[in-house]
C-alpha cells in the first residue's frame, strides 16, 4: 500500500511569488493534516480536514495561505505571496479519523526555501 | 489549549546504554500519546503510542510509560544502537484529533 505522497519534494522561490504543494493521502483515510515544521522544531498544525471539510484552520495564516480538499481525497496548500519566514518543511499527514484518535502517517514533506 | 514540553532537547548516550526522553502535557483531556522518530531529511514515523487507559506499553527495545495524574509520559530505549540516532518527538492528542507535538529530542548514540 502506498503511503502519503507529496509533491514537489523541494521548492525554491523568490519572496512575493506564489507556491503550491500537493498531497495524496493513504487510501481510505478521511482525515488529512497540513503541518509546518521549522528547523529544529516539531510539526505545527496548519489545517485539518475531515473528508472535504476544514474542521480546524485556526493556525492557518489566512491572509496568505489557503488550502482545499475538493473531493475529500487530494489536497493542495497554497501560499501567495510567499515571505522569507515561510521557509520550512511542509508536511502532509493522514489518518483514518473518527471516532477516536488514530495514528497519523506522514508524507515525505516539501522543503520550501524562500529567497 | 494543549501544550507539550519535551526534555532533554539533546541526549548523547553510549551504544548499549539506555535513553529516556520525558514529556509533560497540560490538557487533562488528552487521551492519545504517540512518539515519532525522524531521521535527518526524512518524514516522522510512529514508533510507539499509548492511550490513556494504559500505564505502560512495550515493543522490543522501546517502552512508553504514562502517568495521567502527573500528566507526563516517557520514552525508554534500551540497548541503544547507532541507528537509534534521530530526533524523537512526543505528542499529545486531546479529544482525538488536534495533535500537539513537543519540540523534539535529538538523540546521539555513540559507537
What would you say about this model in short?
By secondary structure, chain A is an all-beta fold.
- Let me know the average pLDDT of chain A: 92
Secondary structure: number of strands of chain A: 11
Summed up, the helix count of chain A is 0
Cα-based radius of gyration of chain A, to the nearest Å: 13 Å
Biggest interface, chains and residues, is: A-B, 25 and 25 residues
Mean pLDDT of chain B: 93
What characteristic shape of chain B results from the CA principal axes?
globular
Q: Helicity range of the residues of chain B?
A: under 10%
**Relative helix content of chain A:** under 10%
Order of helices and strands of chain B: EEEEEEEEEEE
Judged by helices, strands and strand pairing, the structural class of chain B is mainly beta
The multimeric state of the shown protein is: heterodimer
Number of strands of chain B: 11
C-alpha-based Rg of chain B, rounded: 13 Å
Q: What gap, in angstroms, lies between the N and C termini of chain B?
A: 41 Å
Q: List segments of chain A where confidence is low: pLDDT < 50 over at least 5 consecutive residues.
A: none
Major pleated sheet of chain A: 7 strands, mixed
Q: How does this model look, in words?
A:
The complex is a heterodimer of chains A (115) and B (111). Chain A has strands at 5-7, 10-13, 19-24, 31-37, 44-50, 53-56, 65-68, 75-79, 88-95, 105-106, 110-114. With 115 residues, chain A is mainly beta. In chain A, strands 2, 4, 5, 6, 9, 10 and 11 form a seven-stranded mixed β-sheet that branches. In chain A, a hairpin with a 6-residue loop joins strand 7 (65-68) and strand 8 (75-79). Chain B is mainly beta and 111 residues long. Chain B has no helices and eleven strands. In chain B, the strands form two sheets. In chain B, strands 2, 4, 5, 9, 10 and 11 form a six-stranded mixed β-sheet that branches. A five-stranded antiparallel β-sheet of chain B has the order 1-3-8-7-6, with no helix packed on it. Chain B is globular, with a radius of gyration of 13 Å. The A-B interface holds A 31, 33, 40-45, 48, 55-56, 91, 97-109 and B 6, 31-32, 34, 36, 42-46, 49, 51, 89, 91, 93, 95-104.
